[in-house]
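[audit] Reproducing an earlier prediction to check determinism. Same input, same settings, fresh worker. If the tokens differ from the archived copy the diff job will pick it up downstream; this log only records the rerun itself.
[audit] input (257 residues):
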Amino acid sequence: MKSGIGTMLDRFLLRRSIARWRNIAADADTADLATLRGLRGPARQVRREIDRLLYVADGRLMLPAIGSKAIRKPLMSDWAWRPEIWRGPITPPGMAAVENRATFGDEATIFHDCDTSELTLRQIRNTRESDLAPFGFRMDVFRFDGSFLSVVIDLPEEAIEGLTLQHVIRMETQVEMEKPIEIFARLNVRHGPNSEQLVRELPLNEAEVMVEFDLAYTKMNEKRVEKVWIDLIFEGPEMNQIVLRDLTFSRRPRAEL
């Protein structure tokens, strides 16, 4: 697609527009109120379009590149995956006063039992040299009058294909918090009318956190697996900002004893 500022005429018109708004801004202090009132609306429209351009340009030009599939995974892994929140831009990129069972993108659902929600979510752009994921996920929790807060991530069909009791599922993440809290990860496997659960506490004394779920410790019916999902459970999240810079999953056969 041809750029909107690709020709000499386009660049000339852009410079004229910039000069015009520069002169308007310089005269704003002495302009009468009626004139200012008439200019405020067009100025906001221009700013809205510029902000949209900058949002897209920053997202596409920053590293790591959007859509990056770089994932650290153990040897012998037969499947690895990064959810969409950390992989590519979602719409809308943020939510305020998040309600119970609100969806964020296509793969994440928020659960809580607050009477009044003071929870906000935001997809943020990662820019550090150490980041492999293009995006991060930020939760700002203010007053919290509920008893639980969790983020549920549905794993794709590829995670289910060929899943056996000999598999180990690994979850890796990078967590930043304003103050320390406990975070638990619960793996759920639905097989027929039954479900299996494995719970692990995230070791948050390290920047990069990893937990593993050994399916040999479940009674999963390998022939009837229908769905797999992860609950990220946040204990006592009140007055805190929690950032998950990355979240990845991988699967490998367990070592034979």
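[audit] rerun output stored. Observation attached for the diff report: DSSP finds four helices and 13 strands in the chain.
[audit] end
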